[in-house]
Write a structure and sequence with these properties.
Blueprint lengths: L1 H26 L3 H17 L5 H4 L10 H23 L5 H15 L3 H24 L3 H18 L4 H11 L4 H28 L2
Helix pairs in contact: 1-2, 1-4, 1-8, 2-7, 4-8, 5-8, 6-7, 6-9, 8-9
Length: 206
């Protein structure tokens, strides 16, 4: 039981850090600078070994079926963490962040599901590469550079990251059946993209 609770707690912490990264992004008008600072979220998740769904799902190929439970509980924790940050930020003086988040959310919800799925696949690919490189790369510069470059790439390209979007939906206060559907498509896309790269890495890059 404690093990399962740990999965959720580590997921909550990961969600909080991604949420903080999201706040930083909303606070900076320059997209390049904002995407760079957003990298703080993934960097600290990796450094502290928190459970971020998009950083873990690719390793499903290396684990037993029970790993699905860890993924699910981590995802639940990620949602709770981002929801906490988004909800608390709505109580602060930074009301302009809410308006910016609403604009971001509207763009996503006005897109079609196929587009969302494709954009989520590419994001999943980047996330696996960034996290796996952090774990396996011995060169310190390459280890950290991939984190920053990966996060900047998916943000500047407009790819869909399910956990980051949980934060945007939370701070925008936008929740509906449509939001849940779009999040599900993002989760599936992120998972597929991550698994595609993980398959290549496990089979050909040994």
């Amino acid at each position: 039981m404690k093990k399962y609770l740990d999965f959720i707690i580590k997921g909550i912490y990961a969600g909080i850090l991604i949420g903080i990264g999201g706040v930083a992004y909303l606070a900076i008008e320059d997209k390049i600078a904002g995407s760079f600072i957003f990298s703080f979220g993934l960097l600290t998740v990796c450094m502290y070994s928190f459970n971020l769904f998009t950083g873990k799902v690719g390793y499903i190929l290396e684990n037993k079926i029970s790993y699905l439970i860890e993924l699910l509980l981590s995802l639940i924790g990620n949602f709770l963490g981002t929801l906490l940050v988004g909800t608390l930020m709505r109580l602060t003086r930074f009301k302009n962040y809410i308006d910016t988040a609403k604009n971001i959310v509207n763009i996503k919800l006005n897109d079609n599901l196929l587009s969302i799925f494709i954009l989520a696949i590419f994001c999943g690919m980047i996330m696996y590469i960034a996290v796996n490189n952090y774990k396996k790369q011995k060169d310190v510069v390459g280890k950290y550079l991939t984190i920053f470059m990966g996060v900047m790439a998916f943000i500047l390209c407009g790819f869909e990251h399910c956990v980051a979007n949980m934060f945007y939906f939370s701070i925008a206060g936008t929740f509906s059946f449509k939001v849940l559907l779009y999040l599900l498509i993002m989760i599936l896309g992120n998972s597929l993209g991550s698994i595609i790269i993980a398959f290549y890495y496990n089979r050909y890059n040994k």
